[in-house]
Amino acid sequence: MKFSEATLKVLNNFSAINSNLLLSPGSTIRTISPSKTILASAEVEETIPNEAGIYDLNNFLAIVELMSSCYVSFEEDRFLFDSVDRVEGLQYAYSAKNMIISPPNKSIDVAGPSFTLEWDKLSKVVKAAGVLRVPDVNLVSSGGQITVSAVDVKNPTSNNFKLKVGECGEDFNMVIKVDNIKVLPMDYEVTVSEKGVIHFKGEKVEYWIAAEVI
Question: How many other β-carbons are positioned within 10 Å of the β-carbon of residue 141?
Fold first, then answer.
């Protein structure tokens, strides 16, 4: 197979969440951060034929880029990269499964109020957090309005930036660390849970991010 551009974007995104990756048979790729604060899942165009562990995903992606015109075969214990004319080839061994931090097989059901969060608004808040040097993104629903803010929730006098992003009939107040917002650029349907999980569901990709309930 040859990885599509969409799949490579997913893999690059997942490499920011966890440098390890365990590919499983099928068309779903999942990862989890070492701190267990981010779980991500994506549906890809390709069908993975067998289990394959990648210990250093950034290194693997560098090899894919090096061999960009080649096809990848999943062998019993390694990847094989071959050019169409067989002029160049490369072998890359799988990592042992016990060397990889991989997510549990069970899914996470998140029930609670939902709203649409547009990428241009989310990215603006994350950018503002960097400019203001504050560590938190605060999602608040109060009085029927939903706002997303860049703020330091532990410092009531900190600089902050706030955007109205929608309306909701239920109140909530949740905080995500800016460092945990590692999502692909797209609009998301966001569901917040009183159990401290925020679900970002996009087109063919979704994230479950740990949050603090205030």
Answer: 21
